């Protein structure tokens, strides 16, 4: 019986109105102390637990956080989502997931802004959707993770993608790689753009020029198939390449098979480096050298920042940038002391 009790049942047992019970639950100041104690005693005696809706009325919070991701076929996003869900659960919060197949549009932005969630964590965002993100941030606390949009209303938690790109360039040069290629897509994502910029700027700093062969194939979806085809076209355009930086692990795994299809021995003739360190990058059959993003730390910081903004909406925007780590595996060769492990 206790499990089926409603606030109306408690009202009948306590001899008060249902609205009085509701005000007691919400700790409304209009309730006399004697009445409050009587209703609370009945609640304890019958083991009544207020519904989620009642608790929301009391706290003005739903206890739910929206996480917006893109392209769950990319193993990076399920991994990041796993860490975010666990981190939110440790704070007693539920997660609702929105998967974006395209950039954020007005209809989806309105739906997120009008939803019952207490805040939003975006793991996908591009500059062209800035207005839609601003509309959501005007209604809900918002934090970006693994994406960056500048603006006074945006909190950001990212890894240092620019420095990661520079690290890959340094690694290639230290390994005496001289015919270097870049395999990337046509993307507005800040992560991809920062990796490209860091990589190219470091080559220019060290060599005095930015000589680097880019893939002739232009694509906007980072898939195994695109990586495979892009690498084959890249090697046909410049057969003498001895190192290729891929700005995404899925593309890098496709590129690895594409290089083998072209008869290149990896790493004896050609080095390949990816980015993200998705779980399959460490599989023995792949063994991809890559830049590892600190996903657990990023998830922890994003949730921490979102909770702070939920408590204080007037906090100034903050950007947290965490370091990445070069993980050397079988698609390149070791140089000096080992810098990472499987």
TrEMBL record:
GO molecular function, one term: transcription cis-regulatory region binding
Record key words, sorted: DNA-binding, Transcription, Transcription regulation
Keyword hit for Disulfide bond: no
PROSITE patterns reported for this sequence: HTH_LACI_2
Gene3D superfamilies per record: 3.40.50.2300, lambda repressor-like DNA-binding domains
Segments forming domain HTH lacI-type: 5-59
Pfam families: LacI, Peripla_BP_3
PANTHER family registered for this protein in UniProt: ALANINE RACEMASE, LACI-RELATED TRANSCRIPTIONAL REPRESSOR
Protein name, as recorded: LacI family transcription regulator
Organism this protein belongs to: Advenella kashmirensis W13003
């Amino acid at each position: 019986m206790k499990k089926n009790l409603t606030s109306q049942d408690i009202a009948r047992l306590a001899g008060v109105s249902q609205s009085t019970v509701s005000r007691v639950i919400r700790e409304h100041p209009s309730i006399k102390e004697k009445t409050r104690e009587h209703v609370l005693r009945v609640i304890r005696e019958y083991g009544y637990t207020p519904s989620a809706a009642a608790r929301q009325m009391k706290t003005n919070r739903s206890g739910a956080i929206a996480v917006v991701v893109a392209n769950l076929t990319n193993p990076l996003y399920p991994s990041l989502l796993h860490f975010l869900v666990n981190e939110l659960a440790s704070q007693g919060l539920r997660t609702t997931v929105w998967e974006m197949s395209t950039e954020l549009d007005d209809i989806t932005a309105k739906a997120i802004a009008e939803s019952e969630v207490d805040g939003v964590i975006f793991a996908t965002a591009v500059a062209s959707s800035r207005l839609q993100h601003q509309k959501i941030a005007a209604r809900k606390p918002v934090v970006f993770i693994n994406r960056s949009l500048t603006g006074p209303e945006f909190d950001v938690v990212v890894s240092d993608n620019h420095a990661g790109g520079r690290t890959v360039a340094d690694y290639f040069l230290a390994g005496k790689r001289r015919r270097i290629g870049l395999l990337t897509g046509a993307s507005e994502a800040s992560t991809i753009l920062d990796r490209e910029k860091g990589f190219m700027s470091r080559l220019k700093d060290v060599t005095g020029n930015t000589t680097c062969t880019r893939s002739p194939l232009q694509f906007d979806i980072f898939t195994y198939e695109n990586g495979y085809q892009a690498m084959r076209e890249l090697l046909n355009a410049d057969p003498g390449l001895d190192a290729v930086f891929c700005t995404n692990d899925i593309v890098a795994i496709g590129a690895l098979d594409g290089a083998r299809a072209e008869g290149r021995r990896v790493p004896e003739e050609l080095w390949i480096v990816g980015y993200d360190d998705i779980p399959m990058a460490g599989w023995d059959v792949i063994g991809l050298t890559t830049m590892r993003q600190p996903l657990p730390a990023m998830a922890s910081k994003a949730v921490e920042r979102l909770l702070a903004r939920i408590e204080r909406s007037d906090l100034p925007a903050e950007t947290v940038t965490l370091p990445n780590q070069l993980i050397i595996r079988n698609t390149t060769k070791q140089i000096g002391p080992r810098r990472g492990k499987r």
